[in-house]
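Thread: "does anyone have the structure for this chain?"

Original post by V.I.:
We have the sequence but no experimental structure in hand. Need at least a predicted one for the grant figures.
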Amino acid sequence: MASPSTASPDPRRAAAADGHRITLTFAERARMWRRVGLLLLAVLTHVPVHGAWRLFRLPSPWPRRFLGRVARIVGARVETIGTPRGRDVFYVSNHVSWIDILALGGASGTAFVAKAEIGAAPVVGWLAGLNRTVYVNRENRMGVAGQIEQLRAALDGNWAITVFPEGTTTDGKSLLPFKTPMLRVLEPPPPDVMVQPVLLDYGAAGEDIGWVGEESGLDNARRVLARRGSFPLRVHFLEPFDPADFPGRKAIAAESRRRIEAALTAALGHAPRPFAYVEQARSNPPPSEEKSV
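Reply from O.Q.:
Generated one for you, tokens below.
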């Protein structure tokens, strides 16, 4: 994952990023288990209804409702700014947390591109599958062409999907270079498909919530579920553009990043800062700790 190049001002946050499990207070544990109970209730009330709709081959609104409900349970107060295109769209977004998927899925109904290991993770993989997640193996560089064709087939007639081209999560105050392999699906772009950049703005809460450093996915979830109160999450759907006007995946990535960086600069009041964690290679990471593509 990553190692810090600068220290966080919050000792507990810095310890979490260094890979240390944070000891929760009694009040924090109570908040965490209360939210876990509400999450289980959401699963029990939403998933069976979704299954019934699918049984009758009806378009199901329940994954979108479920994701929006779960986002609220974990503390996010999602505000949508701009208009999501909805269909025939390829969303390109910055990436801060696993909560991104809840917020974006709840706001737009989009499916996602995720690393193949996510599909094998307990519970998370099952829930992601409910929302038509397309799994790819980013490390299999020799198989990228086949994965692109898999992505095209999965999206045929249902173009509403999101990629996180930074390839990892940040602290909400930074923006990494965009990786382009999965944007090859837009070479050439399918008819009528637009690219819509998205900025996820967690405000001051981003530094605490962001999944960075050596913190495991489970430990990050514990911390987030134990937090007091709620936090704002503004989902900025920026102006869509025609990918045909920016031929090639590198040009599409550059234009998407330019628009997201401009929106992030406006939200922060200053330019994004360098990311405080430098990516390091790690062999055979546990499936439950993998991040989205």
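V.I.: this helps a lot. The chain is about 40% helix and 15% strand.
O.Q.: and The longest strand covers residues 194-201.
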